């Protein structure tokens, strides 16, 4: 009990200091001149902070995790300081004053928030990138964990000349010196420290300009030129739409986007510099299956909702994620149409209602709520609020909320009060029902969604209210494709549906044909030709499913199917190539030729497949390769086991977890225990520490 009380007192004291400093000292601008050594994974630099003292203080601090400091000066004079490994404390009483300067030199070896990819490998992608939200920028740059402390950051970054350095703000110039280049970035407005960002790598770029004159830079890997246009398709249209819809001009100097390897999230809305997982880089075929448009619009919307106006605490996190999700949906509606918008909301409503009815519902204003609540329930709140308050009142309320809190922080009442004032409606009941209650109002949500004709037809079908005749009419109509997919999935459980399937194959509708590819496990001979035609569809999902099902159902023609798909890689994770290798290795009649020729070719294919477990490939590719190798029973050699152990400590949680589960299953066999023990001297500290916890001495 005493320990619990002590912890509680320390927590309260920390929160008090947090609030006390933000109210007493205003840090206005930072100049950082840093150099990054990717081989040592080290950052060194000199920083100047400009600040005003609003009320007298005995001391003040800057968050700085596990850093060392030197040359600490306040207004040009050396000052006493204390480094407690989490903060740099300036031990000097300050009276009310303005335009003070704190300067210091520092060194950091960041354990997180800055990530170094590929520098220990002889080949492959080499990058440095950051992720401040949830990881704390103060791991690599002395800054502020409190989102309320907003600073204008200007960064000078020195790095090897063969790489591009991207950072927040405008690139004012570069300075070349021998093998190094210093990149000089300048910002004009303040932001929270978690939005400070860097991306360093080898990039080419597409330039564009918004209707309002904002420069846009869209980066891609030099080898991905064919993916640039499909990935960034509709970017200018989305940008122009959001500016018009939100009603506030884009609040920053420019907008840059860049893919990075093994990113921790789908995307991150760093101010003027969105970083996103390079798995979203797709060619024109991949675009049909999974595209970047939603993430593109979501991160762009954050430039207003989150970056310009930041939620003051986690309780109000929906002001960032709910708004970004909602405005991304509006942008997608602009591109894909009204039915798409309602379909996405319907899927969210079904998920939220199911969780709510299972007792797992969460209030939007619950600081500990999960992503589904902040993102999707938050977006639904805005959809219903717009209907309740009226379109004009909603849009004026959003605009006034942004204008009043520009470059500051806000809470939910700051927004709701504006909408209530402008609409003239009492929204207290709405707030209780939609923001404070953990129960999802299913009936109200569905009544709203059923205003859309497509949703009415979809729900009528799912409730069994549509006759077979009407079902056939819908399949022949131009109704939005998710309803056709649902009908096909149900229809193909019916053995009399073969003739109808044949007719649907001939429609040429990409989504209908994909639903047919997914709906049948056993392909009847009468549909063999139609299924074979799927191997030519512009969809990697369709091709992948058609290939495996054809191979399983018509094994005698395996060589034909493998020949037709031999040159297809698929998505960034090589989904089709890895599947192809597995099928080729498992086919006794493939390839043709002498025993020696077949042996050599199979050996080469196995080496290619096992090679995809290497650290030089994205974690999604490695995950696919490990899964296939496990099914083939080929997880055995030393190099693969070493790659698997290293995967167990990967920074991406889902990949690390799946790798740990795989390793754990292997270690049930004593032979693997001994093989892994032999690896220990070759492994790094993180890997050895991990193994110590799962392998007995």
From TrEMBL:
Q: Where is the Aminopeptidase N-like N-terminal domain?
A: 34-195
Q: Span of the secretion signal?
A: 1-19
Q: Which GO terms describe its biological process?
A: peptide catabolic process; proteolysis
Q: Which reaction does it catalyse?
A: Release of an N-terminal amino acid, Xaa-|-Yaa- from a peptide, amide or arylamide. Xaa is preferably Ala, but may be most amino acids including Pro (slow action). When a terminal hydrophobic residue is followed by a prolyl residue, the two may be released as an intact Xaa-Pro dipeptide
Q: Which residues form the Peptidase M1 membrane alanine aminopeptidase domain?
A: 234-434
The answer to whether the entry has keyword NADP is no
- Gene Ontology terms for molecular function: alanyl aminopeptidase activity; metalloaminopeptidase activity; peptide binding; zinc ion binding
Q: What class of enzyme is it?
A: hydrolase
EC number(s) recorded for this UniProt protein = 3.4.11.2
Keywords assigned: Aminopeptidase, Hydrolase, Metal-binding, Metalloprotease, Protease, Signal, Zinc
> Which terms in the GO cellular component ontology are assigned?
cytoplasm; extracellular space; membrane
What Gene3D superfamilies does the entry give?
Neutral Protease Domain 2, tricorn interacting facor f3 domain
Q: What is this protein called?
A: Aminopeptidase N
């Amino acid at each position: 009990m005493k320990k619990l009380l002590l912890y509680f007192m320390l927590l309260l004291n920390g929160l008090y200091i947090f609030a006390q400093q933000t109210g007493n000292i205003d840090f206005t601008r930072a100049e950082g001149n840093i150099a990054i050594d990717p081989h040592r994974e080290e950052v060194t630099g000199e920083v100047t902070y400009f600040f005003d003292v609003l009320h007298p203080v005995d001391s003040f601090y800057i968050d700085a995790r596990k850093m060392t400091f030197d040359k600490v000066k306040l207004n040009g004079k050396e000052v006493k300081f204390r480094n407690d490994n989490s903060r740099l404390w300036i031990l000097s009483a300050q009276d009310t004053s303005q335009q003070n300067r704190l300067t210091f030199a520092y060194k950091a070896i960041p354990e997180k928030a800055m990530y170094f990819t590929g520098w220990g490998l002889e080949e492959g992608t080499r990058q440095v990138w950051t992720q401040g939200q949830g990881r704390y920028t103060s791991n690599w740059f002395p800054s502020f964990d409190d989102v309320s402390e907003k600073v204008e950051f200007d960064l000078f970054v020195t790095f090897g000349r063969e790489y591009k350095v991207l950072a927040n703000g405008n690139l004012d110039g570069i300075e070349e010196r021998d093998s190094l280049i210093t990149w000089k970035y300048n910002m004009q407005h303040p932001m929270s420290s978690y939005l400070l960002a860097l991306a360093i790598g080898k990039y080419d770029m597409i330039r564009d300009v918004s209707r309002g004159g904002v420069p846009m830079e869209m980066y891609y890997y030099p080898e991905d030129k064919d993916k640039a246009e499909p990935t960034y398709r509709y970017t200018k249209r989305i940008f122009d739409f959001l500016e018009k819809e939100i009603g506030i001009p884009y609040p920053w100097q420019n907008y840059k986007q860049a893919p990075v390897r093994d990113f921790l999230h789908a995307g991150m809305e760093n101010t003027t510099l969105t970083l996103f997982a390079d798995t979203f880089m797709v060619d024109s075929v991949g675009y049909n299956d999974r595209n970047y448009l939603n993430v593109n619009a979501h991160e762009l919307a954050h430039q207003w909702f989150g970056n310009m106006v930041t939620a003051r605490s986690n309780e109000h996190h929906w002001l960032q994620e709910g708004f970004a999700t909602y405005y991304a949906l509006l942008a997608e509606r602009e591109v894909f149409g009204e039915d798409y918008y309602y379909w996405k909301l319907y899927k969210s409503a079904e998920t939220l209602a199911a969780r709510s009815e299972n007792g797992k519902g969460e209030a939007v204003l619950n600081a500990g709520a999960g992503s589904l609540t902040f993102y999707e329930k938050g977006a639904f709140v805005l959809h219903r609020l717009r209907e309740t308050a009226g379109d004009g009142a909603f849009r004026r309320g959003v605009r006034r909320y942004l204008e009043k809190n520009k470059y500051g922080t806000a809470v939910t009442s700051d927004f709701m009060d504006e909408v209530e004032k402008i609409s003239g409606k009492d929204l207290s009941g709405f707030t209780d029902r939609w923001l404070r209650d953990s129960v999802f109002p299913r009936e109200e949500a569905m009544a709203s969604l059923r205003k859309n004709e497509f949703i009415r037809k979809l729900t009528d079908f799912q409730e069994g209210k549509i006759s077979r005749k009407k079902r056939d009419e819908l399949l022949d109509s131009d109704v939005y494709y998710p309803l056709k997919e649902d009908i096909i999935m149900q229809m193909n459980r019916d053995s009399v549906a073969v003739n109808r399937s044949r007719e649907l194959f001939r429609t040429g509708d990409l989504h209908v044909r994909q639903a047919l590819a997914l709906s049948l496990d056993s392909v009847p001979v009468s549909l063999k030709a139609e299924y074979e035609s799927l191997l030519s569809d512009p969809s990697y999902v369709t091709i992948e499913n058609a290939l495996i099902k054809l191979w399983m159902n018509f094994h005698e023609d395996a060589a034909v199917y493998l020949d037709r798909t031999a040159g297809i890689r698929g998505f960034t994770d090589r989904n089709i190539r890895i599947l192809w290798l597995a099928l080729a290795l498992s086919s006794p009649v493939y390839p043709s030729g002498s025993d020696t020729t077949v042996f050599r070719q199979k050996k080469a294919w196995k080496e290619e497949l096992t090679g995809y477990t290497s650290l030089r490939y994205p974690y999604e590719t490695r995950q696919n390769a490990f899964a296939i190798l496990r099914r083939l029973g080929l997880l055995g050699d030393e190099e693969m086991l070493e790659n698997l152990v290293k995967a167990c400590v990967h920074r991406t949680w889902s990949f690390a977890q799946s790798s740990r589960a795989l390793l754990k299953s292997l270690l049930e066999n004593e032979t693997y225990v001994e093989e892994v023990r032999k690896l220990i001297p070759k492994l790094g500290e993180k890997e050895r520490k991990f193994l110590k916890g799962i392998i007995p001495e």
